[in-house]
């Protein structure tokens, strides 16, 4: 398939949703045009596929199957027709969007961003992804943390075996419930499952079915933790190199908070003037990393090198570097006190 496509430009909408799956079967674009990302840079107020098609070619898509369960196999014929119609006019959208970007003097920005996407194979792999289980804040005991890990990994294996989303096997809320209650028998497991109440009835049904259908595997996962020594239990927390939550900056490093306030203010002005979402000018994580621990000594070249190393495109580096250089290096003094 890759040989047949050759160097042809791929036209995709929201390419990051498709590229990881295509990369798994050996398909990678040589050049790419992402109509969703391009629409963001062009300043469209809505960038969903239907809205973009309507904006550029005046066609309103029927969305009767948009809420369907697309994990169904085989896909019904009407759904396939619907999916084909969704992209039938995408090349025409691409041409008109490119013209729009060129008229706004944003085409080079878009082409740089599209080029970066050609090597995208998915978000960075997180250390211990199971720690992102929703409701993890309710877990404190290391044995319970280990049960979350074992249950999460078991769920992931079952999902891969069934080629379905992990949440369709067992919701996160049920993993947390089982980790906290640690049932040891089928009866206790079922009791824990029936005792969970979620806001969604459908989610409750999924939880009940998942507990019953794979009961033996959940109990095995819980039993593995019971047999672990203290040394085998995961730590309660894991250090990472990310800056602390922004809400703590004023107390922990007020000069960094002042830098962030200044740069974000300047970027917000630019965002409003050029009609580009703030997060497309520079990723929030990149900006926070540079402003929390800026290069020392601070210089134009050092900032550019740091931004580039973090994945910023050259147009973003050109835009953001001057704002960082002009940001305050110390906490601005408070104004003089006034008498009431």
UniProtKB/TrEMBL annotation:
Domain HRDC: 141-232
Keywords on record: Exonuclease, Hydrolase, Nuclease
InterPro entries: 3'-5'_exonuclease_dom (IPR002562), Exo_C (IPR041605), HRDC-like_sf (IPR010997), HRDC_dom (IPR002121), HRDC_dom_sf (IPR044876), RNase_D-like (IPR051086), RNaseH-like_sf (IPR012337), RNaseH_sf (IPR036397)
Signal sequence segment: none
CDD domains noted in UniProt: RNaseD_exo
GO molecular function (one): 3'-5' exonuclease activity
Protein name per the record: 3'-5' exonuclease
PROSITE patterns reported for this sequence: HRDC (PS50967)
Organism lineage: Bacteria, Bacillati, Actinomycetota, Actinomycetes, Micrococcales
GO biological-process terms attached to the record: nucleobase-containing compound metabolic process
Protein species of origin: Flexivirga endophytica
Region (Disordered): 235-254
């Amino acid at each position: 398939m890759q040989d047949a496509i050759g160097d042809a430009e791929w036209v995709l909408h929201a390419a990051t949703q498709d590229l990881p799956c295509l990369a798994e079967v050996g398909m990678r674009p040589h050049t790419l045009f992402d109509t969703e990302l391009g629409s963001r840079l062009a300043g469209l107020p809505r960038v969903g596929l239907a809205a973009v098609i309507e904006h550029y070619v005046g066609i309103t898509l029927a969305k009767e199957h948009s809420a369907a369960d697309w994990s169904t196999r085989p896909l019904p014929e009407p759904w396939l027709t619907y999916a084909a119609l969704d992209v039938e006019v995408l090349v025409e959208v691409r041409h008109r969007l490119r013209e729009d970007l060129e008229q706004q003097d944003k085409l080079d920005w878009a082409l740089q961003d599209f080029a970066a996407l050609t090597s995208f194979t998915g978000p960075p792999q997180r250390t211990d992804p199971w720690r992102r289980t929703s409701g993890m804040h309710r877990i404190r005991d290391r044995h319970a943390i280990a049960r979350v890990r074992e249950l999460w990994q078991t769920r992931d294996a079952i999902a891969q075996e069934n080629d379905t989303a992990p949440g369709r096997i067992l919701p996160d809320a049920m993993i947390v419930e089982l980790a906290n209650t640690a049932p040891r028998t089928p009866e206790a497991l079922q009791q824990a499952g029936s005792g969970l109440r979620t806001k969604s009835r459908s989610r409750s049904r999924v939880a009940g079915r998942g507990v019953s259908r794979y009961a033996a595997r959940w109990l095995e996962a819980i039993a593995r933790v019971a047999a672990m020594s203290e040394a085998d239990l995961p730590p309660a927390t894991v250090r990472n190199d990310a800056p602390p939550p922004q809400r703590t900056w004023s107390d922990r490093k007020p000069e960094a908070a002042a830098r962030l306030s200044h740069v974000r203010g300047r970027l917000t002005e630019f965002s409003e003037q050029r009609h580009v979402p703030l997060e497309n000018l520079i990723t929030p994580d990149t900006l926070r990393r540079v402003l929390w621990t800026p290069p020392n000594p601070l210089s134009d070249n050092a900032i550019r090198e740091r931004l580039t190393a973090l994945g910023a495109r050259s147009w973003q580096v050109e835009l953001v570097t001057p704002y960082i250089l002009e940001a305050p290096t110390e906490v601005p003094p408070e104004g003089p006190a006034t008498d009431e």
